[in-house]
Q: What sequence folds into this?
């Protein structure tokens, strides 16, 4: 069977790896691979503000009932209308309500909690500084939306106006 698989499908992973010598390292430190990954990024949150105060880890019901939250990031990466998520992407998605406001070197996004936990709010431990956020998707209308989109939208608007 192994010979048939080799003839029809090529080498297996084990057979392919056996062609190369074993590499031994003189240290047992962590070894990291440098790989080219996705172009999507995770942006670290500077702080979150709810009702005018900075959110702490022991806060609860942040953004309950769709009330607005301010998320502060070190760069302008997200777009109006986007759904962004932190570490618990299925539990606490946030919808960006408008373009960010600049405060010094930071960008302040006005967001609201969406999804199944909208009525319960988000625990403060999910919104403390250092938590990483990424864009998930951008819901749009059935017709051609010019409001919601990403870098392609900026390219289109720049190119055709």
A:
């Amino acid at each position: 069977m192994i010979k048939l698989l080799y003839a029809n499908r090529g080498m297996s992973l084990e057979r392919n790896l056996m062609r190369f010598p074993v590499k031994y390292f003189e240290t047992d430190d962590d070894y990291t691979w440098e790989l080219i990954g996705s172009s999507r990024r995770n942006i670290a949150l500077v702080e979150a503000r709810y009702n005018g105060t900075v959110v702490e880890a022991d806060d609860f019901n942040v953004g309950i009932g769709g009330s607005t939250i301010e998320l502060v990031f070190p760069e302008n990466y997200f777009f109006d209308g986007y759904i962004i998520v932190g570490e618990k992407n299925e539990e606490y998605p946030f919808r960006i309500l408008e373009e960010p406001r600049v405060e010094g070197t930071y960008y302040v996004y006005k967001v609201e909690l969406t999804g199944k936990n909208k009525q319960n709010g988000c625990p403060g431990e999910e919104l403390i500084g250092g938590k990483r956020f990424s864009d998930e998707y951008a819901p749009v209308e059935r017709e051609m939306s010019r409001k919601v989109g990403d870098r392609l939208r900026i390219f289109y608007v720049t190119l055709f106006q």
Observations:
- The chain has a mean pLDDT of 82.
- Residues 151-160 form the longest helix (10 residues).
- Residues 43-140 form one domain.
- Residues 65 and 83 are 17 Å apart (CA to CA).
